[in-house]
Amino acid sequence: MADETIVEGEVAVEATAPTESREGRGRGRGRGGERGERGERGRGRGDRDRRGRGNNDEEGGEELIEKLVHINRVSKTVKGGKRFGFAALVVVGDGKGRVGFGHGKAREVPEAITKATASAKKKMIRVPLKEGRTLHHDGKGRFGAGKVNVRSAPQGTGIIAGGPMRAVFESLGVHDVVTKSVGTSNPYNMIRATFDALQEQTSPKSVAQRRGKKVADLLGRGGAAPVEAEAAAEAIVE
């Protein structure tokens, strides 16, 4: 009898349950459903954006060179022990005069590298190259305690650089360059100092356009014959 009473009580409760409670449940489900739909919509937009970017890269035929420069493991002491994380420094370039760097932090190494790569792609800069293989002129860069000297080199010299700087020039597409790093060996500061030197690079075409002159006029000031200056001006790619 007790069981029947309980069963009947449950049935009675379900049958005579106030409409408000059911509506409240329905509202909760509806809100959850709306949130779920919104979440799905948000994820759909993100997926479409990612797919669109990927398709644009594939359609444009752009193949980026990714170089992992440095990974640093950091730890945070909490009540239950230590919590480890990773910081990655990545350099990205197209090998044709565009390069960028970025860093990312995450609990896992692959996720940190992904974040750093995405950040590097957003901050890519254009650097003019001489004959597509070296720099147009010498330059100096500085960031914090890091100082960097970069010099153009004749064909066949190769990349005379070490550590993080080599990754930058390989991603940039430079084949002949001589560099020297003075001061700190911190990879972050070395990369920033190298980019400071690269941002000061200018090509004869940009200088001539800014001054309203011809490239041959600028090259002829070094004592070269007009014919040689014209030939050198035509040989300049960028």
Short description:
This protein is of the alpha+beta class and 238 residues long.
Verbal overview:
Keywords: Ribonucleoprotein, Ribosomal protein, RNA-binding, rRNA-binding. It is elongated and about 70 Å long. The protein has eight helices and eight strands, in the order ααβββαββββαβαααα. A hairpin with a 4-residue loop joins strand 2 and strand 3. With 238 residues, the chain is of the alpha+beta class. The chain has helices spanning 2-15, 19-60, 109-122, 164-172, 187-198, 204-211, 215-220, 226-235, and strands at residues 65-78, 81-93, 98-106, 125-126, 139-143, 146-152, 159-160, 177-183.
Q: Which helices and strands, and how do they pair?
A:
Elements: H1 2-15, H2 19-60, E1 65-78, E2 81-93, E3 98-106, H3 109-122, E4 125-126, E5 139-143, E6 146-152, E7 159-160, H4 164-172, E8 177-183, H5 187-198, H6 204-211, H7 215-220, H8 226-235
Parallel strand pairs: 7-8
Antiparallel strand pairs: 1-2, 2-3, 3-4, 5-6, 6-8
Function: With S4 and S12 plays an important role in translational accuracy.
Protein name: Small ribosomal subunit protein uS5
Family: Belongs to the universal ribosomal protein uS5 family.
